[in-house]
Design goal:
The protein is an alpha/beta fold and 362 residues long. It is 42% helix and 15% strand. The protein has 2 domains: 10-177 and 346-360, Glycogen Phosphorylase B (Rossmann fold, 3-Layer(aba) Sandwich); 196-343, Rossmann fold. The radius of gyration is 21 Å and the shape is globular. The two termini are 23 Å apart.
């Protein structure tokens, strides 16, 4: 029997800050392909000019701008017919209008409390009274209204439940994603030679660059090749260290650089769910990363990579020795990393999961 029910128009409201730029690009490409639904796209940074001017004037009250920007974006999507709307991120959701027949799916990687605990980008380790009032009330309001939360990690989902009273059934784990057809292993066998190490992080210090340089200077690792991709490379004369500054996300040159390396190191001091771990794993490259936040969902410790307990040189060096001294471990972890990413983090798998939850939640 023919189904005469009209399709629900979906909305997609997202900015391009930091790692969200890659996520937005991948979702905008694959959402219409996988879901075969009509979509309305609204970019948060394209809101009215007065919001931009207000952002500059608000200074430390940037959170108010984020909330107003989120409200303006979803109102624009609703005006264009969207009734089920993905909004990223949590920081844009406190003041969303409650409209009959409209359901929000709030995509987030961390709460304000989690970012403060991490000291993310120099943020204070406490949360301001204004932030507690705005987000505490706003997020609880969205939860009471029956809206849904798409969480990048178990870490994030548990925080929403503990901090804001969001019910477990209102959360779904939707991890960051990677196109595993594009990010794929290099053809042929690994070339002979010393271990080739890559570090990728625009913010060199926050991503653990100081620990990387400390290890690179150790005599026992002098024969390793170190490749640093960052916007703020260190000043160094080490002959085994090469820096790169001109790569954009998903750039072909970056992809080829990763494919030609053996291991990614990311002794990060503050991170939520770094996409670079997925890109390396999809390329068949295991990662050594700090055990924190959503990283523990991305790496099966001892199977598809290695997690270190502290972002320091001693922990990084100990993990690196395992791969240097046991080539078969490096190969096995690289293979397992690729398998895990294809199974759990491929963009087609993730988009299909997004479609399932949006169809399920009324």
């Amino acid at each position: 029997m023919k189904n005469d029910q009209p399709q629900t128009t979906y909305g997609f409201c997202m900015g391009n800050r930091a790692g969200w730029k890659s996520i937005r690009a991948r979702l905008e490409k694959f959402l219409p392909i996988v879901t075969a639904q009509p979509w309305v796209y609204v970019h948060l940074e394209d809101q009215q000019q007065w919001l931009g001017e207000m952002s500059r004037r608000l200074g430390k009250f940037r959170m108010a701008y984020d909330a107003m920007c989120g409200r303006a974006a979803v109102r624009q999507a609703i005006a264009q017919g969207a009734r089920k709307i993905i909004l990223a991120t949590y920081h844009h959701c406190p003041w969303l209008p409650q409209v009959k027949g409209v359901r929000y799916f709030i995509y987030c990687d961390a709460t304000m409390y989690q970012l403060a605990q991490l000291g993310y980008n120099g943020q204070a380790t406490d949360v301001s009274r204004l932030a507690k009032l705005m987000y505490g009330h706003g997020v609880r309001r969205q939860a009471r209204a029956g809206h849904h939360f798409l969480c990048m990690s178990t870490w994030c989902a548990e925080a929403l439940q503990a901090e804001h009273g969001v019910r477990a059934e209102q959360t779904t784990i939707i991890p960051p994603m990677v196109d595993t057809d594009y990010w794929c292993p290099r053809p042929g066998a690994r070339a002979p030679g010393p271990l080739r190490v890559v570090f990728i992080g625009a913010d060199f210090l926050r991503k653990g660059g100081a620990a990387v340089m400390e290890v690179a200077q150790l005599a026992e690792f002098a024969d390793l090749q170190w490749h640093l991709v960052t916007k703020s490379p260190p000043v160094t004369t080490l002959p085994n260290v090469t820096s790169y500054t001109g790569f954009d996300a998903d750039a072909d040159g970056l992809r080829k650089l990763v494919q030609a390396r053996d291991v990614l190191v990311l002794p990060t001091t503050a991170d939520c769910s770094p996409i670079v771990v997925l890109e390396a794993a999809a390329s068949g490259i295991p990662t050594i990363a700090t055990r924190m936040a959503g990283i523990v969902d991305q790496i099966d410790d001892g199977t598809s990579g290695l997690l270190i307990d502290r972002p320091d040189a001693a922990c990084l060096a100990a993990a690196l020795r395992q791969y240097r001294d046991t080539p078969e471990l490096l190969e096995n972890h690289g293979r397992a990393a690729r398998e895990k990413i294809v199974r759990e983090f491929d963009v087609r798998v993730v988009v299909a999961n997004i479609q399932n939850v949006m169809e399920r939640v009324d």
